[in-house]
Amino acid sequence: MTDLKTVENFTYSGQKIFKEAQDFLPINGTDYVELYVGNAKQAAHYYKTALGFQDLAYAGLETGMRDRTSYVLQQGKIRLVLTTPFDPESEMAQHLRLHGDGVKVIALWVDDAYDAFEQTTKRGAKPYLQPKTVTDADGEVRYSGIHTYGDTVHVFVERKNYTGLFLPGYEKLDTGYHPGTCGLKYIDHMVGNVELGHMNNWSKFYAEVMGFANLVTFDDKDISTEYTALMSKVMTNGNGYIKFPINEPAFGKKKSQVEEYLDFYKGAGCQHIAVATDDIVFTVSEMKKRGVEFLYVPGTYYDTVGARVGDIAEDMAILKKWGIMVDRDEEGYLLQIFTKPVEDRPTLFFEIIQRKGAKSFGKGNFQALFESIEAEQARRGTL
After folding, report:
1. Percent of the chain whose pLDDT exceeds 70
2. Burial level of 85, CB count in 10 A (0-12/13-18/19+)?
């Protein structure tokens, strides 16, 4: 059984840098994230307008797709696939009825999708998608997939012999509506919420089945307030391109954010997607102009943050204006902010993050962040 020791002295260099991670499943990055949504056309309009995503590709009745419609949007290296089923009795429709809008597929870009399936299933992964090859005039894409926590799945995508826009079966999307980008570059990490007592099971899954390492562990002393707490293990692949924090609730006086998520999502799932930017002030100011709502950070947070993080390039008054938090580790510092949930169920939200050397996850901001989340829970009557 893989030893889940926290990795020490890590740096990002594009090479294998996490000594506990194994290399039997090389991953080049996140290929796409697919959300099942109630109305893909309207969801695409929201993600373009509010978050600055751009038209990329489309599949639906017009392209020969008979069971669903999918809009593919892109910003930087981030690809979102928004999918709505036609058949109300389909598995996709059942997923929507149970969970509401949310992440179904976290697709990983690999060199060999067939080998990725073999390597993971022989180590115990439950198959989701048997290996297959799909072709069109632009070449071939090879796929496979496995189940992970809740109803979330990983699809392995091999596209080295494909020159098309996205995937076979999709055509170019151009709605004529092209709001500007918000400066998002790539997915920094994606957080999974799992039931009490399941965090260690899923961290072991990522270690044993996918060759990941435990980058850092947070317990209920690290992530807690007077009322609520959670625990988290951050799992990473060997090159550090993929990072999956796995959260579970911890005992507290009131219902934690993880418990609220599990109640409304009806099980484990992806809680938030952290997206990176090179200019967080621009990104946040642009999103706020477009109607994106962010968690409120108490003004008192900024009374002491300067002494805690030391000198930074940004003007603290500007960060306070936009509610952007700061934290520092041995490698540098980071800036981060969290949206409110992006649908009516208090489930999926986004984190905006700018790293200025820091490789950590904002531990120094946990207290203020949790108090902000608790304030929202209190407003919803779910604390």
Report:
1. 87
2. buried
In whole angstroms, what is the distance from residue 235 CA to residue 206 CA? 7
Identify the DSSP state of 281.
H
N-term to C-term CA, the chain: 38
Residue among 102, 103, 171, 112 nearest 137 (CA): 171
* Secondary structure class of 66 (helix, strand, coil): coil
3-state secondary structure of 42: helix
Contact residues for 212 (Cβ-Cβ < 8 A; gap 6+): 21, 206, 235, 236, 237, 242, 244
Q: Other CB atoms closer than 10 Å to residue 139's CB: what's the count?
A: 14
Taking a C-beta distance cutoff of 8 angstroms, is the pair 54, 75 a contact? yes
**pTM here?**
0.91
Pull the structure tokens for residue 195: 């039931």
**What number is the average pLDDT over the span 46-53?**
98
What distance lies between CA 187 and its chain's CA centroid?
Answer: 7
The confidence score (pLDDT) of residue 366 equals 66
pLDDT at position 19 is 52
Q: Minimal CA–CA distance to 47: which of 20, 78, 80, 69?
A: 80
